[in-house]
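Interim report, section 4.2 (structural modelling).
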Amino acid sequence: MSRIQKERDRLLAATARTVGLTATVTALLCLSVPGSLPLPLYLASVVLIVCLGVAQYQLAALLRLTLWMWVIVVCGLALILLHLLPGTALGPSAISAVGVIGAASVACICVVAVTSRARLVLLVASAALTVAALGVTLGMTGSRMIEPLVFTMTGWIALTATGVWLSRTVPRTLKRISTMSRAYRVERQASETEARRRQSARLLHDTVLATLTLLAHSGVGVSHGALREQAAEDAALLRQLRLGFTPDPARSGDYKLKPVEESTLGNTLESVKQRFRRMGLEVNWHGAGQVLLPSDVLDAFLLALGECLENVRRHSGVKEAHVTITDDEANVRAMVTDAGKGFDVATIDSGRLGFTESIVARLRDVGGNARLFSSPGSGTTVVLEVPK
Amino acid sequence: MTRVDERMVPRSSIGRVAAGDERDALGRARLDVGFNVATVALIAFLLILFGLNVSEYPMLGLSVAAWVLVAVTLVAALVLRFRLPDELPLWLFLGALAVWAAAVALDIAGSWPVGGATAPLTAAAAVGPALLLCVPVRPARDIVIAAGVLGGVLLAVVIARAIPDPQLLGPGLVTVAIAVAPPVVGVQIVRSLRTLVQLELDLVQVQSTVVSPGYAIGMLASEELARLDLAAERLLDGVATGRTALPLDQDTADAAASIATELRLHLIQGRKETWLYHAVTESALLGPSVTLTDPDGLAAGLSRDQRDGLLTAVWLLISDPVRTGAGQPRTLTLDLARPVGTYPRTSNPGATMTIAISTSGVPRNGVDPAAWQAIRKVGRYVESFSGSTLHIEITTVSDTSAELM
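Predicted structure of the assembly:
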């Protein structure tokens, strides 16, 4: 709230300053017309006008606002009353000067005065004093009274109205904007949930990525029929994802409601096996088939497994791989072995994106790890480990 | 011009529409009313002035005709106001200007001093306050130009008439001021209000990151991911239905490869950025002016209150010159680091951090007190000035139970 008030006061004060300074400059020009005031009085009025201008300029700083408002009122009244001193009827320019001082130079304070009760008192008092000073000055010098008085009252009314409307508009506007923060928050949450939903569908993206990569490499080693079949399956999954489902052959039910839902490994492994069979790699499973894993761990595990098998398919030169799943109290382990070419582990740059990013990084995400054993000519073994 | 750049980060359509609606609706209806009161008061005064001097007019008929023209446009404006689109159509504005120009010409002719008569310009001056009605519905430039032309014409007339008697210059100058000041002040008000609204919209958007997870995907990445998924779906669908021939031609193969690469990057990189990074990059104000260094993603460990404090402080420090209308946003650097002497991986990873803020061009006492108040919510701080650069170093103990996602 205090910030809203501050923005409001800032706008009011800036408006008051512009109005006040414009009026003060006009008054100075009027007084500077030859014959408006005797020279000594003119010089005195210039001093007062400078004080008035400084005070009006200071309004926008919002510091010691009430003090500066009083300075404006006092200087303005002094300027008006100063015209009593010649003791003769005022000329048109002098009348215009006192009029504009009363109607806007002093009245500019009402733009800022509408914000508090104490300042409203100041507003009413200074309005009365201004009208009185004008009445006295013009009356005692026998000058024409009606126009400056009407002008002054108009100025006070118009500026008070402006102040009141502005002081209501700003907080109302800002409050309305702040109610929009809820909309933004909801939107952000929705976008976050959506992104998370898509990211969580890692298994799906895994197969999509594999298929896309195959396609990009002109599907080397895979029959066109198999590739079409795979593409159709993946496109259907993506369509489901787009329509708001979370398609995942490994899961049942709405995982959003049960984020720590566990799934069995067995039927999921079957889908991985099918996928690689289409691409020409026979995967043989050994060991435990009924392991329960939290869904995020399962995702990471299957993804890493898929990457390992893809490496075997691409690099090993053999058409068969063995996956042995074992589990104990704390961990589930998968050993991926092939009898292919193998390679020298030392020659692989440890930062190579393929292994670290796709396999190790995701396993570490869920608290697991991966180890790689290989030597040229004697196949490759990767051990993947995730906590239960 | 201090207007904040409209070029906001593309948001989803809901946000964009809501923001647009708000921006249009904001303040306009109410400002109209405020300006109406001021307009009517000033024009009433000028009419009274006309009434008081009615016997002085050498050619009263012309001035009365001028007043009739002004009155017609005012009535038309008040009647049409609710039926017009948000922006006054150009032809209507030009039409109003033409009528007003005629009124000015008639009034000048009607009050032209013949034989020492000193009738004031009234209907011509009333065009200025009438112009105030157009301020919320026309671009600032139009209003300023119109007011400038009006002021120039009136000033020339006033000076010409004051040649025989310089004392007449005073009332003339007041007339010019009455004509020119209201529309110009109105333009200033509308412009400040617009800046204010844009800044607030930006702040509100930025603050919505306060409750987002420590590491988030961000609005942009989410849209991007959806886009990639759709592209992949289309490509795969093409292959599946046989629309795309196998093996793929070079272009399609390249497309598949690039979709796969981007998708992989998005799936892996998604959560590496903190809420603070997203807050800064998504903001039209903070984006260009804040340099954020947070290699360890420490910002993720800040609690909701700390985030709110930090964002508010940064926002206040930067936007101050914009809000006062003094100039462009300041630039600011924000460095989050572990305190010197702490091992990177202590047993309590989110325990303490130092946030160093430095920004230049801040006057020594010119920091918004609300900024200090906001910083206090983040942690203990020490501030120092070197030259015109303000350094604030905050030491924070972050809430380790905060959501670390």
